[in-house]
Design a protein that fits this description.
Elements: H1 2-17, H2 19-24, H3 31-41, H4 46-58, H5 63-75, H6 79-89, H7 97-109, H8 113-126, H9 131-143, H10 147-160, H11 164-176, H12 180-193, H13 198-210, H14 214-221, H15 228-246, H16 253-274, H17 281-297, H18 301-313, H19 320-332, H20 336-344, H21 353-360, H22 364-377, E1 381-382, E2 391-392, H23 394-409, H24 413-426, H25 431-443, H26 447-458, H27 465-477, H28 481-494, H29 499-511, E3 515-526, E4 533-543, E5 551-564, E6 567-582, E7 585-595, E8 600-611, E9 616-624, H30 631-635, E10 640-652, E11 655-666, E12 671-686, E13 689-694, E14 696-702, E15 714-718, E16 721-731, E17 734-749, E18 753-767, E19 772-785, E20 788-802
Antiparallel strand pairs: 1-2, 3-4, 3-20, 4-5, 5-6, 6-7, 7-8, 8-9, 9-10, 10-11, 11-12, 12-13, 12-14, 13-16, 14-15, 15-17, 16-17, 17-18, 18-19, 19-20
Helix pairs in contact: 1-7, 3-4, 5-6, 5-7, 6-7, 7-8, 8-9, 9-10, 9-11, 10-11, 11-12, 12-13, 13-14, 14-15, 15-16, 15-17, 16-17, 17-18, 17-19, 18-19, 19-20, 19-21, 20-21, 21-22, 22-23, 23-24, 24-25, 25-26, 25-27, 26-27, 27-28, 28-29
Keywords: Signal
Domain PgaA membrane beta barrel: 510-803
Pfam families: PgaA_barrel
C-alpha cells in the first residue's frame, strides 16, 4: 500500500506540472514535435525523448525543449537522466519553473532531500502562486522528516485553501509521521468534499487499510476498479479483522463464537473461490493460515493443530504469529511440551503463555526464570505517550499473578497465600485478585475462608464466570450440593466450550458416578499375635450415585483371615447402609452380617463428624460387633462392641493433629480404652518432593488379663516417623509417585519393660485420571509383644474407582 501511495503521489505531481507543457510547446519547430508532445502526454514518452537526444546532437535546444525534456524524462521515471540534463543546461539558460520542478521531483525520488528541497524553493520563487509546487514542497519536507515544518506548512495550506488536494497533502504529512489516525481524519475531509474522486477514494482505501478498518475498506473497494490481487488482499484483511474481534477476551464466549463462525464461513467462501485459480495460490494459502485464528477462537483446537501440520507439510514457511495460536491450541489439547517448544522458537511468544506451557509441562526451573524476568523488568508505573501523569502498569500486575501461580504449582502455598492476600487487600476492587486469593485458600484446605473471599468478590460482578467456577468448586468442598449444581449448570449453559468449564462439568459428572473402594493387606513374613501368620484382609464398598443431593446407598464385602497357634481364624462381613452429607456434616449408618465361624451375627455402625470451622472437626463412631475386634478374639468366640471420639485440629496442608479416645467392650468382660495423638509437620517441600514428620503417641488399658488375644494391661508407645512422597511423573491428571515411610520409637508394656520400635516402608501410587487411583505399600516393622521382639513384613493395597 505504501508503494501504491508513493506511485499515485508521484503521478499526481507529474501530471499536474504537465499542464504547463502544452502551452510551452506551442512554439515548437514543427508539427512532428507537437505530435510527439501529445504522445508523451498520453504516456508514450520514448519518441519525444529520442527526438530530443538526436536534436541535441544536431544543434542547441531552446529553453522550452530542455524543460520538456526534464518533464518527460521525469514521467518516464528516468530520474538520473533528468539530473544529467539539468546539470548540463542549468548554467546555459534560465530553465522555467516546470523544468526546475521536474528536477526537484527527480531528486526527491532518489531521496536526495536537500537538493530536492532547494529546487522546490527555487521553483516556488519563480511561481509563488502555484499551489502544486507548494504541495510538492510540503510532501518532500514530510519525506525528509522535517516534521515540524511539514506539518505547520500543511496545516497552513489547508487553512488558506481547504480543497481536496490540500487535505490529501495534510494526510500525507500525518502518515509520514506515523500518525495514521490523523491521516485518516484528513483524508476523510477530502472524501466528504469529493466522494467520487478516484484519487481520494484510493487514499481513503489506503488509510482504512492502514488503520485496520478492513470491512469498510472492502465495501469501498467494490466501487473501484482495482486489480484482482488487491481485491483478494482486501478480502483477506476483512476476514482477518473478524478473527481479531473473535479473539478479544473481553467478549463473552457466545459472542466470540458467533464472530468466529462468521469468519469461518467467510474463509470457506474465499477458499472455495480461490482454490482453482493459479494466480491466487498465495492468497489461498494466506487464508488457510489466518483461518487458524478463527478455529482457535472457536475452541476447535484439534483442527488448529491438524491444519498447521498440513501447512507445514507443504514445505513453505508459516508466519511466526501462527506459532502462538498453535501453541495455545496445543496447551488446550494438553500437549504442553510441544507448546513450550513452539513458544520458545520466537522471542515474541513469551510470558505469560510460555509460563503456562512451562508449568504444565512440569518445567518449573524454566517457569521460574520466565516469571523472575517479568518481575525484574516490569515497573509498577508507566508513562503513556503524551501524558506527564504515570499510570498503573498492567504487566506489573500480570507478573505478580504469574508469580502466585508459580508458588501454587510448586507447592509453596504459604508464599502463594502471602502474595495473593497482599494483592487482594491492596486492590479490594479487583475481583480477579480476590478470586485468585480464594483459590489458594481452597488449595490449603481453608474452604470456609475461601467462601468468604468469594462472597466479597461477588459484590463487584456476581455473574463473572471465573467467580462462579471457583464458587462451584468451593461449594463442592463444603458439601453444598445444590449450590454446586446450580453454579455448575449456569457456567455450563453460558460457556460450554471453555476448557475450564469442561473441567468443572467433568467434576460434576464424577460426583454423580458410582464409587468403588477396595483396600487390603497381605502378610508376607510375620508372626504377630494380633494378625497371626499368613494373614490377609480385604475390604470393599460400593457407593451408588447421589440421591436427592445428600444421600448415597452403599454395600460391601469384607474378609479377614490369619493363622494362630490354636487354629485358623476368619471373619466374613457383608455391610450395607446409607451415607448422608451436607454442609459441615457427614453421617454414615450401616447394618452388617458377620460370620466368623460361629454362625451369623448382626452388626451395626454409626459414624459421623462435624466441622466447626476450617480448623476444628469433631467426630466419632459407635459399633456393634466392632470392626476393630482382634481376629484372634473372634477365633475364640469373643466379640466386642466399641466406638471412638476424636478431635482434629487442622491449620493447613502442612500441619494437623488428631486426638482420639476409643473404648471397646469385649464379651469376655474385658474393657479396653485406647488413646491416640497423631499429627503431621511439613519439613520440606519442592515441586516434586514432600517430606513430613509424623509424630504418633498411643496408649491403651485393659481390665482383664490372661485372655486368648493380645491384651496388655497397660502400654504406651512413642513413634515419631518420616513420610516422603516423590512425584516421578505427572501429566495433568496422570500422577505416578513413590512413597517412603520410616519410624523409630519406643514401646512400653506393663511387666515387660521398654523396647525399640522400627518401621520402614516403600510404596508407589498411580492416579490414572480423575476416576481411578491405585496404590501399593510394602512395610516392615519390628517391635516387642509381651517382651519378645517380632518381625512383620507385609504389603497393603488400595484402589478407588469412579464409574
Amino acid at each position: 500500500m505504501d508503494r501504491q501511495l508513493h506511485v499515485r503521489t508521484r503521478a499526481r505531481l507529474c501530471w499536474a506540472l504537465s499542464l504547463l507543457l502544452l502551452s510551452a510547446s506551442a512554439n515548437a519547430v514543427d508539427s512532428t514535435y507537437d505530435q510527439l508532445v501529445l504522445q508523451a502526454r498520453d504516456g508514450q514518452t520514448g519518441g519525444l525523448l529520442n527526438w530530443l537526444q538526436n536534436q541535441e546532437k544536431q544543434g542547441a535546444l531552446n529553453v522550452n525543449q530542455v524543460a520538456d525534456w526534464l518533464q518527460v524524462a521525469g514521467w518516464a521515471e528516468r530520474d538520473e537522466e533528468v539530473i544529467r540534463v539539468w546539470q548540463r543546461y542549468r548554467s546555459q539558460m534560465t530553465i522555467p519553473a516546470r523544468g526546475v520542478a521536474a528536477v526537484a521531483q527527480a531528486y526527491r525520488n532518489l531521496k536526495q532531500w536537500d537538493s530536492s528541497l532547494a529546487l522546490w524553493e527555487k521553483a516556488r520563487q519563480m511561481e509563488p502562486a502555484n499551489d502544486d509546487l507548494r504541495m510538492a514542497w510540503i510532501l518532500t519536507l514530510a519525506d525528509a522528516q522535517r516534521n515540524t515544518l511539514a506539518l505547520s506548512e500543511a496545516q497552513r495550506l489547508v487553512h488558506d485553501n481547504p480543497g481536496v488536494q490540500q487535505y490529501q497533502t495534510l494526510a500525507y504529512v500525518w502518515r509520514a509521521q506515523g500518525k495514521s489516525w490523523d491521516a485518516l481524519f484528513a483524508i476523510t475531509q477530502a472524501w466528504q468534499k469529493e466522494g467520487e474522486n478516484r484519487s481520494v477514494k484510493a487514499d481513503l482505501l489506503d488509510a482504512w487499510t492502514a488503520n485496520r478498518i478492513a470491512d469498510p475498506a472492502l465495501v469501498l473497494s467494490r466501487t473501484m476498479d482495482l486489480p484482482a490481487g488487491q481485491k483478494r488482499s482486501l478480502e483477506l484483511n476483512a476476514a482477518a479483522e473478524l478473527v481479531r474481534v473473535a479473539q478479544q477476551t473481553s467478549r463473552g464466549e457466545a459472542e466470540r463464537f458467533l464472530v468466529a463462525d462468521k469468519a469461518l464461513a467467510r474463509y470457506d467462501t474465499l477458499l472455495a473461490q480461490w482454490k482453482g485459480l493459479p494466480e491466487a495460490q498465495d492468497d489461498y494459502r494466506q487464508a488457510r493460515i489466518d483461518r487458524l485464528g478463527a478455529l482457535l477462537a472457536r475452541n476447535d483446537f484439534a483442527d488448529v493443530v491438524r491444519e498447521y501440520h498440513a501447512l507445514q507439510a507443504e514445505g513453505k514457511p508459516v508466519p511466526d504469529y501462527v506459532d502462538g495460536w498453535v501453541a495455545s491450541a496445543l496447551l488446550s489439547q494438553r500437549e504442553p511440551e510441544d507448546a513450550y517448544r513452539l513458544f520458545g522458537r520466537h522471542p515474541a511468544h513469551i510470558e505469560p503463555e510460555m509460563f503456562y506451557a512451562a508449568i504444565e509441562s512440569e518445567n518449573f526451573p524454566a517457569a521460574k526464570r520466565i516469571v523472575d524476568q517479568m518481575v525484574a523488568n516490569t515497573p509498577y508505573l508507566v508513562y503513556e505517550y503524551g501524558s506527564p501523569v504515570p499510570s498503573p502498569n498492567d504487566r506489573w500486575l500480570t507478573s505478580r499473578i504469574l508469580l502466585s501461580r508459580y508458588y501454587s504449582s510448586a507447592n509453596d502455598l504459604p508464599a502463594a497465600e502471602k502474595l495473593t492476600a497482599n494483592m487482594a487487600s491492596t486492590a479490594p476492587g479487583n475481583q480477579s485478585l480476590r478470586i485468585n486469593y480464594a483459590s489458594v485458600l481452597a488449595a490449603r484446605g481453608r474452604t470456609h475462608a475461601a467462601e468468604q473471599q468469594l462472597k466479597l468478590a461477588e459484590v463487584v460482578e456476581p455473574s463473572n464466570l471465573d467467580l462462579e467456577r471457583q464458587q462451584a468448586y468451593t461449594a463442592q468442598s463444603l458439601q453444598e450440593w445444590q449450590q454446586f449444581e446450580q453454579l455448575t449448570q449456569d457456567v455450563v449453559t453460558r460457556s460450554p466450550e471453555e476448557p475450564a468449564t469442561k473441567e468443572l462439568a467433568r467434576a460434576r459428572a464424577i460426583h454423580h458416578m458410582y464409587e468403588l473402594r477396595i483396600s487390603g493387606s497381605k502378610g508376607i513374613s510375620s508372626d504377630s499375635p494380633i494378625s497371626g501368620t499368613r494373614d490377609f484382609t480385604w475390604n470393599s464398598v460400593l457407593y451408588g450415585p447421589p440421591i436427592a443431593d445428600h444421600w448415597r446407598l452403599f454395600a460391601g464385602m469384607n474378609f479377614a483371615t490369619g493363622e494362630f497357634a490354636e487354629g485358623k481364624g476368619y471373619n466374613r462381613d457383608v455391610p450395607g447402609g446409607v451415607e448422608f452429607t451436607t454442609r459441615d456434616y457427614w453421617v454414615e449408618a450401616e447394618l452388617s452380617n458377620q460370620n466368623f465361624g460361629r454362625g451369623n451375627k448382626p452388626g451395626a455402625r454409626l459414624s459421623a463428624w462435624h466441622d466447626f470451622s476450617d480448623s476444628w472437626r469433631i467426630g466419632g463412631s459407635a459399633e456393634r460387633l466392632s470392626a476393630g475386634t482382634p481376629l484372634r478374639a473372634l477365633r475364640n468366640g469373643i466379640t466386642a462392641n466399641g466406638g471412638q471420639v476424636y478431635v482434629r485440629w487442622y491449620q493447613n496442608e502442612r500441619r494437623e493433629y488428631r486426638l482420639s479416645v476409643a473404648p471397646t467392650w469385649f464379651s469376655d468382660g474385658n474393657q479396653r480404652v485406647e488413646y491416640g495423638l497423631s499429627g503431621k509437620e511439613r519439613l520440606w517441600t519442592s515441586p516434586h518432593f514432600m517430606l513430613d514428620l509424623t509424630p504418633d503417641i498411643s496408649a491403651s488399658t485393659n481390665t482383664r488379663e490372661n485372655v486368648p488375644y493380645y491384651n496388655p494391661k497397660r502400654d504406651f508407645s512413642v513413634t515419631p516417623g518420616l513420610s516422603a512422597q516423590h512425584i516421578m511423573y505427572r501429566h495433568y491428571d496422570l500422577v505416578w509417585s513413590q512413597q517412603f515411610v520410616g519410624g523409630l520409637g519406643a514401646y512400653w508394656q506393663k511387666d515387660h519393660g521398654t523396647g525399640l520400635v522400627t518401621q520402614l516402608g516403600y510404596g508407589q501410587r498411580v492416579q490414572w485420571n480423575n476416576v481411578l487411583d491405585t496404590g501399593v505399600l510394602v512395610t516392615w516393622d519390628k517391635r516387642p509383644y509381651d517382651g519378645e521382639r517380632e518381625r512383620n513384613l507385609g504389603v497393603s493395597f488400595d484402589m478407588n474407582l469412579r464409574f
